[in-house]
Specification:
single chain; mainly alpha; 4 helices; 83% helix; 0% strand
C-alpha cells in the first residue's frame, strides 16, 4: 500500500516518534557524534552545555583541540604560501 501526500507525512511522523521512544540511546549517540563532528568542522569547541549534556570526556576534548590546532596551522601555512605567490 503506497502512501501519498499528507498520509505519507503523517505515517513518517508517527514512525519517527515511535523510533525515538524505542531507541533513546541511539538518538543520544547520534546527536553526540553529530555535535563532535560539527565542532571539528566548524573549528570551535562545543559549548559547555553540549559537553555536559553528552558527557564528553576531557580526553575527547583534548583530541578535538589538537585536531583544531593542526587544522589552524595548516590553514595558516596555506595562507602564507598563497600570499607569497600573489605578492
Amino acid at each position: 500500500m503506497a502512501f501519498t501526500g499528507e498520509k505519507k507525512r503523517e505515517w513518517q511522523r508517527e514512525y519517527l516518534k515511535k523510533y525515538v521512544q524505542e531507541h533513546p540511546d541511539r538518538i543520544t549517540k547520534y546527536h553526540r557524534t553529530a555535535a563532535l563532528e560539527r565542532a571539528r568542522k566548524s573549528g570551535y569547541l562545543p559549548a559547555k552545555r553540549t559537553i555536559a549534556k553528552y558527557e564528553i570526556t576531557s580526553a575527547e576534548l583534548e583530541q578535538l583541540a589538537s585536531c583544531l590546532v593542526q587544522s589552524a596551522r595548516a590553514n595558516e601555512e596555506y595562507t602564507e604560501r598563497t600570499t607569497t605567490l600573489v605578492a
